[in-house]
Amino acid sequence: MVVLLGEDSRVIVQGITGRQGSFHTRLMLEYGTKIVAGVTPGKGGQIVHGVPVYDSMEEAVEEHPEANTSIIFVPGRFAPDAVYEAVDSGMRLVVVITEHIPVHETMRFIDYARSRGATIIGPNTPGIISPGISKVGIMPGHVFKRGKVGIVSRSGTLTYEIAYALTRAGYGQSTVIGVGGDPIVGLTFTEALKLFEEDDDTEAVVLIGEIGGDMEERAASLIERGEITKPVVAFIAGSTAPPEKRMGHAGAIIMMGTGTFQGKVEALEKAGVRVARLPFEVPALVEEVLHG
Amino acid sequence: MKLFEFEAKEILKRWGAPVPRSVLIRKGSNVEEALKRSGLEPPLVVKSQVLVAGRGKAGGIRRVDSLEEAVSTVLELFEKPIKGLKPSYILVEEAVEHAQELYVAIIIDRNERKPLVLASSQGGVDIEEIARKSPESIVRKHVNPWVGLRSYEARWVGKKIGLSGGVLASFASFLSTMYRVFEELDADLVESNPLAVTSQGVVPLDARIIVDDNSLYRHPELASRKDDSSEYTHWERKAREAGLAFVELDGDIGIIGNGAGLTMATMDLVHAFGGRPANFLDIGGGAGSDVMRKAVELLLEFPKARKIFINIFGGITRCDEVARGIVDAVKGLGNPDKPLVVRLSGTNEEEGRRILSEAGFQAFTDPVEAARRVVEL
Predict the structure, then answer these.
(1) Would an 8 Å CB–CB cutoff place B274 in contact with chain A?
(2) Is B209 contained in some domain?
(3) Would you tell me which of A17, A215, B284, B320 could form a disulfide with A189, CB atoms 3.0–4.6 Å apart?
(4) CA A82, CA A40: separation in Å to the nearest integer?
(5) Last residue of a domain, one of A73, A95, A121
(6) Closest to B260 (Cβ–Cβ): which among A161, A184, A249?
(7) Does the residue B10 lie in any domain?
């Protein structure tokens, strides 16, 4: 079993004719992702890397009723519309790669998606990968390997770095989820941890957090309450970040005293989570929690 | 984007909220004439318009009892840096006699994914201090983003912080205005602290608005504002103009990374070996040689950075592109004498390493080794 993304995932790429959309469609196809259609309004009838393009999600789904997942490469100001369209056309999983979506928009479309039973990953996410099976995202496939460690992260490159270190140390991954670097995201750490807890193929989880917000603290209290029994190893970026400054990600900001590095590490350690001081210590800690 | 107090108050006033009578004085204008023409009557409050917290404690807010004193205080405050920033504007307001100071704010609750109203009867100090000293006084009310803040909810908040009668009605109306501004401006924060309770109802003594940067395309009137005393330093503005995510820090080691998380982790790593980062600079995912060149050029010119640490994990970003950008920047600026430590790993790593070594640079594979080296230099 895999989390959220598996053998039966059939993908539509929204914004497939754009530079990013077309580039990553090729990389996803090379990885083995089953992309059935693309959508760009006004570009219906074109073919991108062998994938048929439609003007709307409705038309795409009519021709490809097996589609259940969409990935969005549409620019910020048009991306919310693309999300509503994906949800209304029955997608169960919508991965929003787009960065720079106004947070007031995100607040609403996530609420809408949830009320219709769809899961949003992102915005501002590298996506999700179940190594060796499927990738719906922009991560470099070669750093991941099939295995038993789940990863959930707010970061892109840092996740590749840590995943690659795990891969080299012999620890492959079950599913790797980038939840996104925005202040509000569709799938949180706590929700992702619950999915990994229920996944038979995941034996341990690596949580990669950063300053800002309180997702890490909430994950910690879930673990402390005993709802997550699998071992969790964490790394938190930003121990040296100043308060009230946005560190690249819209969500990476310490505001009104919340979201500090210390607060997160203390909460996680109190819950029994092993917190790595440097990203490169993660494989050794995974080794410890799995083989003690 | 942080708005100045005077901008926040202008917006609240435009949406129907009462604000103190005031005059805004721009640097270089005739202060005496502006004050006389304003018809304001002492006592007055003279307020430096800088975008830093703790302005009052830093001496940026003064109460004066005559127009003469107001003139000299305005001139003095124009020359007084507050946490390193000198104001371009001074706001002079009529002092508001009041019996009580409240706290009220609307923020976005990231976890509930809803707007959240925070209010307290213990205003005048920041919310962190209220949370420490009298957490029981803080009232929280989540707002359904589809429905908005209804007036009965605004009254509920007022009642919970102990208001009644005319003051309660005035508070509820003020809070409703704040919410409309919050929605209309796509704000991350709308705050009034202190919000004064007077015999005529509530009046904001201070007001703060932060607009979501990602929504600025919907607010061209704000996006076009150019001001020297804004929230960004000279180098931060330069970087923004070049499209780079950059934050100025206090140390002497310039940092460049790809991806926000990795760049922060690189700062942390340098720190772990006893170094102090001069900045955060994220070139983002998939950056080409062009972006890398701009980033390196910026840090070569950035005087705080005595040496530079570039930490790249190539995923979609290609190491050869990165290497080309580094070499272009250094050559373009005539090989400036600033030590550069590069760590490259991932996609097209060998090619990147070859390009660098041909130009006389060594590239590390191990970030820990590289960090140790840059700190030693």
Answers:
(1) no
(2) yes
(3) A215
(4) 10
(5) A121
(6) A249
(7) no
A110: closest CA of chain B, how far (Å): 8
Burial class (CB in 10 A: 0-12, 13-18, 19+), B199: exposed
Do B159 and B110 fall within a single domain? Answer: yes
Mind listing the pLDDT tens digit of every residue in chain B (377 residues)?
999 999 999 999 999 999 999 999 999 999 999 999 999 999 999 999 999 878 888 999 999 999 999 999 999 999 999 888 889 999 999 999 999 999 999 999 999 999 999 999 999 988 889 999 999 999 999 999 999 999 999 999 999 999 999 999 999 999 999 999 999 999 999 999 999 999 999 999 999 999 999 999 999 998 887 665 567 889 999 999 899 999 999 999 999 999 999 999 999 999 999 999 999 999 987 788 999 999 999 999 999 999 999 999 988 889 999 999 999 999 999 888 899 999 999 889 999 999 999 999 989 999 999 999 999 99
| Residue ranges making up the domain that contains A84 | 11-121
- Contact state of A241 with B271 under an 8 Å Cβ cutoff: no
CA-nearest of B296, B293, B327 to B309 is: B296
Cis upstream peptide for B115 (omega within 30°):
no
Contact A195, A4 (CB under 8 A): yes
Do A157 and B268 count as a contact with CB atoms less than 8 A apart?
A: no
Query: And the tokens for A97?
Result: 């790669």
Catalytic residue among A64, A142, A249, A291: A249
Q: Say if residue B239 is in the same domain as residue B306.
A: yes
Catalytic residue among B89, B103, B179, B232: B103
Which is the catalytic residue, given B5, B93, B101, B191?
A: B191
Residue that is written with structure tokens 């950063």 in the block: A210
Is B93 catalytic? The answer is: no
Nearest-by-CA chain B residue for A236: B265
Where residue A208 sits, what CATH number does that domain have?
Answer: 3.40.50.261
Residue of A nearest to B277 (CA): A240
B127 in contact with chain A, both atoms CB, cutoff 8 A: yes
Active site residue A249: yes
**Tell me, what's the ipTM?**
0.94
User: Is the separation of the CB atoms in B185 and B210 below 8 Å?
Assistant: no
